[in-house]
Predict the structure.
Amino acid sequence: MDSISDMRKKIIAALFPTGVPRLWCPLLTHYRDDGTIDFDRMSRHFSHIVPAVKGYLIPGSTGDGWVLDDKQTLQVSDFAVQQAQKYGVHLLLGVLKSDTETMIRTISAMLGVDVREQSRDEAARILMDKHICGFTVCPPTGKSLTQSEITAGLSVILDLGLPTALYQLPQVTGNEMEPAMFAGLRQRYANVILFKDSSGQDRIALSDFDKEGIFMVRGAEGDYVKWLKDVNGPYDGFLLSTANSFAWELNTLIERLESGDRKKAEEISDRLTTAVNSVFALVQPLTYGNPFTNANKAIDHFFAFGPDANVKDGPMLHAKVRLPADIIEATRDILVQCHLMPRKGYLED
């Protein structure tokens, strides 16, 4: 009988026959003036970055996954499936809900069947047809939850048998999976295939227990080079909000490390870190949206409309307000100073 680790290897090999992508993007959700989702804009954005990014989390936190209503969540997930089928990329559907019952309902709605009543073989067939490689879930929300309660909540999802990515996001959930708890889950569930950590603390990745084939991706921004296994870091790859705009730079950084050119990789990392930290600082005072979304929408504004995008109204947010003009102007200066301003926007064709 296969060990849990061997079973996981087989699941991952079946889902990713050419290997798990090292760069993943939580795609932005764009909105029209009236606040409805702009799928035409999202399609243009997707087609712009897809040559550099082969893995996607949709909807992720950056894509407003925590605030989309049920109808919007299904609209965005349907869009994501269409794009994954069109381009042949790997798709993790984000199930960013605060409790396990809502997670299960959302997964069922995304698959179009009650996942609790389907055989695992039938569920696997649906996933293959829809080009879905798994579902991404966070621990149930609540600052007072114990590790046992978090384990129980996640186990309800993992018992479904679906390929699953666990997402450490204490900024939203108010709690954190401890390394020992995560180690226990990876020993019980072969369907834990990927782990994302956006906490910035990296406690699980830095812990010394064997991850047994779980693909580890970092979601926190900055100092990119030191975190990858190519230089003895703890992560296999990245799942970064900034891949919405800096897909080519991040992809090149990984390729440079793979080829042994650490100097060039660090040069790219330094420019990206300066730009990202600066733009994230700009949006911190805003009382609407989340910093990941707001910062990346400010940057994407220029990648969409080019160097003169500052003359246009700022991007619409889920809150039905636009990013302020002063943030857009300051973002322009940062991109120019860091030599990251695109020559032309992807909407200017």
Strands lie at 23-25, 55-58, 90-94, 132-137, 164-168, 192-197, 215-218, 237-239.
